[in-house]
Design brief:
The protein is α+β, with helices and mostly antiparallel strands. The chain contains eight helices and eight strands, in the order ββββαβαβααββαααα. It has two domains: about 100 residues, no CATH class; about 130 residues, no CATH class. A hairpin with a 3-residue loop joins β3 and β4. The two termini are about 35 Å apart. The model has no long low-confidence stretch (mean pLDDT about 95). It binds adenosine-5'-triphosphate and magnesium ion (MG).
Length: about 250
Amino acid sequence: MSLPRFTTHHVLGRLVRGASSSPVIVETGGRFVLKLRGAGGGVPALIAELVVGELAERLGLPVPERVLVELEAEFSSDDRNDELHDLLVRSVGLNVGFRYLDGARLPRPEELARLDDAFALGVLWLDGFTLNPDRTSSNPNILFWKERPWLIDHGAALSFHYDWPHVTETSPRELTSYAGHVFAERAGRLSLLDATLARRLDPNALAACLNVVPDELLAAAAPEAPDRARAAYEAFLWKRLKPPRPFTTA
Ligand SMILES: Nc1ncnc2c1ncn2[C@@H]1O[C@H](COP(=O)(O)OP(=O)(O)OP(=O)(O)O)[C@@H](O)[C@H]1O
Ligand SMILES: [Mg+2]
């Protein structure tokens, strides 16, 4: 499946002040939050956003709809901030957009604590599987929208892709520590859902998740040709899924 693709030459502004990757808002075929290739995480962070977003949905966890957005070289911006301008210059080309969840809000800690295990254990499992460090109590990267929790911000996951030459047969077996995770207290119950979740991800499903990543992004980030790069991600993730899973035994 390929994602919808849009082109834009206009940026409305920063989504929120102080967000580490300075996502911006654009209006093109709808309103989207744009994660920029010129931000600190670079193109690999965009790949992680796409792949983990797909994996999450296969596990039944809601993530805002993803699209691809080409930022044109002759762009304009309503926000004249100099640093933002430099970031946009670095981000000309293909970026990743998320449907803007109008009216979404950050949940309070007690609301997160009340979420059921079917959701929270799924999130823990996803984060352990994809090596996502970015769902802590202080920054849970969960939004409430339409009475439902939505997962955002997976750019820091799959960190092995910053150092492919050091990926070995055993790298995918790295144990996950859930210390600091917003749902860490529930980790002891992961085994309850482990088999059910794992069944949803076979090699075909992993391939489908990698297929949404366009060649342009892989070519900009991976040392190998796009199809070989996809196969390398799939192999890593499949080895990580082999029981006993290193993220359900910790
Ligand atoms: N799709 C969306 N719809 C509405 N608001 C969003 C959406 N995605 C992100 N936000 C808002 O923007 C904030 C920052 O987004 P995100 O976490 O993806 O970026 P970040 O640069 O990694 O930020 P941080 O460093 O704060 O984690 C979120 O906490 C949320 O308030
Ligand atoms: Mg965030």
